[in-house]
Amino acid sequence: NSEQTLCSHCKGREAELYCKTIANVADLEILFGRLWTQCQECQGSLHQDVLCTSRDCPIFYRRKKAQKDMAEAKEDELIPVLKAPAMDSKLRQANEFLLRMPRRMSRYQS
């Protein structure tokens, strides 16, 4: 229930918070995908899992951090709470918000 999860200040912003949370997950998925592809290219195959465990490679650590951050973002307790049926009308409002919000991934780009 969002009443238990959100403070009184954030209560009226459920849709905005939901969309920001989902956008953050999407950004982290993109970052992880790019790093994964770099590792696949380095090992010489885009069709196999990455087996690299090179502790000397900065991409290895960035990929592992992105994987951890992505998993944590997907476990965010706001996602199921804010996905409640009562959110339908608020999601339309959030769509409008997202259209006005510039997409910035600078903190995730290399």
From TrEMBL:
Any GO molecular function: DNA-directed DNA polymerase activity
Domain C4-type zinc-finger of DNA polymerase delta: 3-63
Superkingdom: Eukaryota
Pfam families: zf-C4pol
Record's catalysed reaction(s): DNA(n) + a 2'-deoxyribonucleoside 5'-triphosphate = DNA(n+1) + diphosphate
Protein name (record): Dna polymerase delta catalytic subunit
Organism annotation: Thalictrum thalictroides
Lineage: Eukaryota, Viridiplantae, Streptophyta, Embryophyta, Tracheophyta
